[in-house]
Amino acid sequence: MLFGRGRKNPIKLADKGVVEWKYAACGYCSTGCSIEVGLNAEGTPVSSRGVADADVNRGKLCLKGIFEHELFSSAGRGTRPLLRERWHEEWRPASWDTALDKLHDEIRRIQARHGPDSFAIISTGQLLTEEFYTLGKLTRGLIGSNNYDGNTTLCMASAVSGYKRSFGSDGPPGSYEDFEHTGCLIAWGSNLPEQHPIIYWRMKEAQEKTGFPLIVVDPRVTMLAQNANMHLAITPGTDVVLMNALMHVIFKENLHDQRYIDANTNGIEALRAEVEKYDPVSAAKICGIDEDTIRVVARTFARAPAAMQIWTMGINQSTHGSDGVVGINNLALITGNIGKPGGTSLSITGQCNAMGTREWSSCSGLPNYRYLEVPEHRAEIAQAWNVDPEFFPKKRGMTQTDIYQAMEAGQIKGLWLIATNPMSSLPNTARIRRAMEQLEFCCVQDCYQDTESAQYAHVFLPAGTWAEKDGVMTNTERRISRVKPVTLPPGEAKPDLWVFNRVAERFNKDGKVTFPETAGEIFLEMGRLSRGRLADISGMTHELIEQKRGIQWPYTAAQAARGEAPPRGGKRLYTADTTFSHADGRAKLIPLPFIDNNEVPDEKFPIWLNTGRLIEHWHGRTKTGKIGNNNKFSPIPFIEINPALAAELGIQRGEYVRMVSRRGDAVAMAQPTQRVPKNMVFLPFHFHDCANRLTLGLLDPHSRQPAYKQSAIRIEKIADQKAAAMLSMEMRKF
Ligand SMILES: Nc1nc2c(c(=O)[nH]1)N[C@H]1C(S)=C(S)[C@@H](COP(=O)(O)OP(=O)(O)OC[C@H]3O[C@@H](n4cnc5c(=O)[nH]c(N)nc54)[C@H](O)[C@@H]3O)O[C@H]1N2
Ligand SMILES: Nc1nc2c(c(=O)[nH]1)N[C@H]1C(S)=C(S)[C@@H](COP(=O)(O)OP(=O)(O)OC[C@H]3O[C@@H](n4cnc5c(=O)[nH]c(N)nc54)[C@H](O)[C@@H]3O)O[C@H]1N2
Ligand code: SF4
Ligand SMILES: [Mo]
To answer: Residue 8: which pLDDT band, with cuts at 50, 70 and 90?
Structure first.
């Protein structure tokens, strides 16, 4: 039978009875999509949709955003503050006052007994910016512990450190719009279609229009690699060698931009001398990319009128993470590809507000990219907050990874964890567990009370999440978007800002420091502190941000006063009329000798363990594990394993296998696929008590970020498949 036009059934969307749509920006990844949440007549969130006139997503959402409204009523949410004397006892419900008094008293008790820095505070990239700013003021201005950091050390620290080393400041210089102008794109260790689906869509759409070559550097055949013109399956942890070899060819063949180098950079001689050593023939032996390919990529990149690089965790999470970022910046600088349309070095950020924490949390410094090390910066902030400048430390304290080592060594006795779950996300779980067990006091503030880390807490503070709260977030392209409360936190749970303000009251009895109650007021205070700086947001207000569906910084009060509307997109840093942030206004070219210090496969542990992500899940699955439409795609831990390796080990598809590293073991189901080479397995790190039992996580010397992507394991067959399946169900948790 023929189906004529008129007979085709149109797609029918289920009528969810939405009577009102409320605006927010997505709370998962750093793409920064604008969402509307649909509420039914009872005011219950029942649907999510993309916002058509938002420049970032233009009406689209990915698999996570589309079901995000289901978070509000998902299982395991914390609804009451909880308290216990020892972490292995039963929880007792407590009032907010009791729980917050306990937190205050324990911070002061531990500081009095062991020194101010013996109490550590670790936050996240998943709060709203006003919350970060308030927590920073509380920690740096009143509590006075220098051991204050965020989970961004696991994520963006190498990008931050690399940007600072090259350009003098953090701050990704490019925009999504650059995809439309570029003549060549190299993607280093980034799986856009799964991890940033809407940025991928923007990139793909631009590529279909202009046909620029896409070169993907990743040891796996990722979805992005499948779509690439060239896929460079690099030997893990050797990107810096490939970068040096590319520069070697560029200089040898005179493809560099001498005029740009002379006008804008320092250090060319030392860089040239170093890359001279990395001829493609020698480099190929280390990085596994053949010499011809190295030459072709170097020429394609350097000859493009504008060329762009993006990267994510394949670069940052390495013992050469910071060097990898500097290498990318070196490549961009020697070819004049910074600050021009389509020519940029754009770190693809991770969490929804990883940028907001970099800009405003005071974790590694003071607000708006100010440094603790700079006396004028300390003085400016001390004056604005009405605190004694001498109260601030003169240099930054420990990073999250160093804090855990100090906990293990008994130097740090107390911990306040906010919106991060280190028992699932830090490498080498056995060591993390020992560190947590030793604490005299731990407070966990999370929107879910069933997290692995909450097992070790003495106080649990139930928080609101995402659009139960009010404030802003900054995305990968420095665009600030608004999140508005769509609904209330469940039970007695409270927005994080409320919690910080109530804790602040307890440390601020004389009322010396002002803590505005609303996010709108806090944003204006931040705007004043940003005037004249790189990340100037003084022209923005909450209302304007919402109206424009997000505004890229900088947007200054002077621009607003002149009546200059914020641009829709395409805003860049370090353009022809702006200088770099080093004192002399120039960028630094930095030589990068390669040091081979990673754990590599050997006879006993012959297989690379590569860990990362899947599109349907978010980190430790506290959220997506509870949303049926996300969880059903991969409800149990599995590994990608090459069919040839599986055959050699006698492993069938769907069989459970045991992975063993020097740290521990874990069980996952085998999924043979050609995506990985024969000497590597890929294990998504989303599952409880799995990937990070195995990882070593050596730290980058500059950024202190762990090398999650390179560990060595062996794989063993499991005779008792039934027991393995039971164990795997246990890891499934939800
Ligand atoms: N669906 C979903 N999206 C997310 C997240 C999530 O949990 N789920 N998390 C968000 C966060 S916080 C982050 S940081 C980003 C991460 O986003 P991505 O970095 O894109 O994701 P990963 O899977 O961690 O790693 C990317 C790739 O690095 C490759 N890689 C491993 N070793 C090397 C190497 O030595 N060199 C190179 N060049 N590549 C290597 C891996 O094979 C992998 O394909 O995603 C964000 N988006
Ligand atoms: N093996 C391996 N390990 C990795 C990685 C890897 O690639 N491989 N990637 C690393 C990277 S890039 C990252 S970013 C980290 C992420 O590591 P984590 O920070 O541990 O990740 P999440 O599971 O997202 O933890 C966030 C916690 O905050 C809670 N939360 C969410 N929203 C809110 C809120 O609004 N308020 C409060 N109070 N709580 C909230 C969630 O329930 C969850 O418990 O993992 C790192 N670990
Ligand atoms: S791409 Fe990222 S920001 Fe956009 S809907 Fe998906 S998870 Fe949310
Ligand atoms: Mo991340």
So the answer is: low
Distance 734 CA to ligand 3 centre (A): 23
The two three-digit tokens of residue 625, written as one number: 């594990």
Express each pLDDT in 607-657 by its tens digit: 999 999 999 999 999 999 999 999 999 999 999 999 999 999 999 999 999
Is residue 301 in a domain?
Answer: yes
Give the ligand 3 atom nearest the CA of 199.
1
Q: Are residues 444 and 512 in the same domain?
A: yes
State the Cα–Cα distance between residues 388 and 285, nearest whole angstrom. Answer: 56
CATH number at residue 556: 3.40.50.740
Last residue of a domain, one of 347, 377, 397: 347
Verify whether ligand 1 is closer than 6 Å to residue 237 (CB atom).
Answer: yes
Residues 482-492 have a mean pLDDT of: 97
Query: Would you say the CB of residue 350 lies under 6 angstroms from ligand 1?
Result: yes
**Domain, as residue range, for 393:** 82-142+385-451+459-561
709 lines ligand 1 (CB under 6 A): yes
Instruction: Looking at the structure, tell me whether residues 110 and 246 fall in a common domain.
Output: no
Question: Residue 1 — very low, low, confident or very high, per pLDDT cuts 50/70/90?
Answer: very low
Q: How far apart are CA 596 and CA 238, in angstroms?
A: 8
- Banded pLDDT at 570 (limits 50, 70, 90): confident
Are 134 and 193 contained in the same domain? no
Separation of alpha carbons 207 and 375, rounded Å = 47
| CATH code of residue 174 | 3.40.228.10
What residue owns the CA closest to ligand 2's atom 28? 419
Neighbours of 153 (CB within 10 A): 26
User: Residue 354: which of 320, 313, 414, 405 has the closest Cα?
Assistant: 313
**Over the stretch 275-306, which tens digit does the pLDDT of each residue have?**
999 999 999 999 999 999 999 999 999 999 99
Shortest-distance Cα residue to atom 36 of ligand 1: 314
| Residue with CA closest to ligand 3 atom 2 | 29
Contact yes or no for 462/79 (Cβ under 8 A): yes
Q: Is pLDDT at 498 greater than 90 in this prediction?
A: yes
CA angle 90-506-472, nearest 5°? 90
Give strand pairing partners of 82. Answer: 93, 460
Instruction: Kindly report the protein residue whose alpha carbon is nearest to atom 4 of ligand 2.
Output: 425
In this prediction the pTM is 0.96
Give me ligand 4 centre to Cα 541, in Å: 28
Does position 327 have pLDDT exceeding 90, yes or no?
yes
The domain boundary, picked from 561, 596, 623, lies at 561
- Residue 340 CA to ligand 2 center (angstroms) comes to 34
